[in-house]
UniProtKB/TrEMBL annotation:
Residues 7-19 have a biased composition (Polar residues). GO terms for molecular function: iron ion binding; iron-sulfur cluster binding. One of its GO terms (biological process) is iron-sulfur cluster assembly. Residues 13-123 form the NIF system FeS cluster assembly NifU N-terminal domain. Residues 1-25 are annotated as: Disordered. InterPro entries: NIF_FeS_clus_asmbl_NifU_N. It comes from the Bacteria. This is NIF system FeS cluster assembly NifU N-terminal domain-containing protein.
Amino acid sequence: MSDTMDEATLQSALSNPQNLGEMPDADAVGTVGSPDCGDMVRMWLKYKEKDGRKVIDKASFQSFGCQTAIAVASLATELIRGKTKEEALQLSAAELSAPLGPLPPMKIHCGQMVEGALKAALEAEQGAPAPTAPASAPVATGPTLADALNASGKSAGKIKIVLQS
Ligand code: FES
């Protein structure tokens, strides 16, 4: 069993990251940070109508983080194009990072951070237009991303990801 990442895919995603940068006309933005490593990923989403369905037209990201997070974010922004919000919400960190192969244990949180940023952006679009909310604390309504991440963080032992504004 191989537990190593696909270095060629990693390097190619890093040398030519897709959809890198802020999206000024985005419909939604989501940001998460990891207190463990201090890294952060922000993702922007833009929707469009297609065949009567609202789908993701494009996505972009910024990452103040490690190479793995950048590579996964690059892959993720490509993967989610054309998907509905519901379809995108189904995607796990493992699916988003699949082209890289299995992430080594110390890099699993990098993929989870990208998943968290994506889900934060997907959820942000449902409610208030987020960016100016006075939030450094996690959003506290209902079963939110923060709840889910906290729960999974506990069961996984060490992973803790927080929402940031
Ligand atoms: Fe923290 Fe990769 S080491 S995101």
